[in-house]
Design goal:
By secondary structure, the protein is mostly helical. It has 9 helices and 5 strands, in the order E-H-H-E-H-E-E-E-H-H-H-H-H-H. The two termini are 101 Å apart.
Length: 349
């Protein structure tokens, strides 16, 4: 069948059916007329894009054609009396002045053919094959003679049968589509389960990576804190070492004074006096019958020995100097102990 597009004059539609359609043009015209009456009320206008009347030299306004008027036109072919005009709202118009959209009339013709062919088989007895063949041959004949009479495919009873058949076909198609949709849904659910598992695994790996990064960050912060403390301790070390060396230097200076002989005279005498006092105190200490001494009685006891340079005044002078030295030595020892303690504490931190 040749596919045509565009518009065609109304008087050429039936002529094209003679070469393009399998049904007899007269039979098809009647089926198209019946189909038109089932589509819309007969007084309903056909949209101008589907059928338009071209009235030359008309001043009455635009013309339109109703579904009933077009059905009457095709009925005239069915009864063997083709009409040359068609009724419009402005009056009769020549059929060749009415343009029909081929796609629209083609769709309508296909529907009418399907209705008619369905009736041919449903209207005959089930076992009367000869009658069926005769009806089909008559309806397929391309002649202007009226074929054997058959019910219209647009009759109410056959329309109900066709609607039921179309509904069953639609339900079957919907069921098939539902099965396909359910199968797709199952595939999607399976794919979703796989993706969900992958997502859970990725989230687990991400969580582990975050924990590892957190641990590494804590270790890094602790290392930075220790490095910062070490830098502070290193910066303070020179001053602490200098203080320790200063304290040690003073102690060494004082200690060396006891072992370094004085350069002359009085220094030597002072050193000898101190030694005599130490010797006297040692004798008093070793005396098992010694009384309980105080500083003054101890000085008298040492002076009674008659040693030169160890009189009571010299002994008391040595005692006074020794007390001062002991006091200074005690202060230095305390300061050094505190310094060592602070150093050990900072190193532990």
């Amino acid at each position: 069948m040749q596919t045509r597009t565009g518009r065609i004059p109304l008087n050429q539609v039936v002529q094209e059916w003679g070469s393009d359609q399998v049904l007899n043009p007269r039979t098809l015209a009647g089926e198209v007329a019946a189909a038109l009456r089932t589509m819309m009320p007969e007084n309903h206008p056909i949209h101008e894009t589907h059928a338009s009347a071209v009235l030359l030299a008309s001043t009455k306004g635009s013309a339109f054609i109703t579904y009933g008027a077009l059905a009457d036109y095709f009925d005239s072919f069915d009864i063997g009396q083709p009409a040359e005009t068609i009724n419009t709202n402005l009056g009769p118009a020549p059929a060749n002045a009415v343009l029909i959209w081929r796609q629209w009339i083609g769709t309508l013709t296909t529907e009418a053919c399907e209705r008619a062919l369905g009736v041919i088989f449903k209207a005959q007895p089930m076992n009367d094959s000869a009658s069926i063949a005769m009806t089909v041959e008559g309806n397929l004949a391309h002649s202007q003679s009226k074929p054997p009479s058959t019910p219209s495919g647009s009759a109410p009873g056959y329309m109900q049968m066709r609607q039921a058949s179309l509904r069953q076909e639609g339900e079957l198609r919907a069921s098939e589509q539902l099965d396909i949709a359910q199968l797709r849904a199952q595939h999607l659910e399976a794919a979703n389960a796989v993706l969900t598992g992958r997502l859970a695994l990725s989230e687990s790996d991400l969580s582990k990576e975050r924990e590892a990064r957190g641990t590494a960050l804590q270790a890094q912060l602790a290392a930075e804190e220790r490095a910062e403390a070490a830098e502070i301790e290193l910066a303070e070390a020179p001053s602490k070492i200098a203080a320790d060396f200063a304290t040690l230097g003073r102690s060494l200076t004082k200690a060396s004074a006891w072992f370094t002989p004085p350069p002359s005279g009085r220094g030597e005498s002072t050193n000898r006096n101190a030694l005599l006092v130490v010797a006297g105190l040692l004798e008093l200490l070793l005396d098992h019958q010694r009384p309980k001494y105080k500083q003054d009685t101890a000085a008298d006891a040492i002076a009674l020995r008659g040693w030169r340079g160890a009189g009571k005044r010299q002994v008391n002078d040595v005692f006074a100097k020794a007390k001062r030295e002991a006091k200074d030595a005690r202060s230095e020892a305390t300061a050094k102990a505190d310094g060592i303690k602070d150093t050990n504490t900072s190193r532990q931190d």
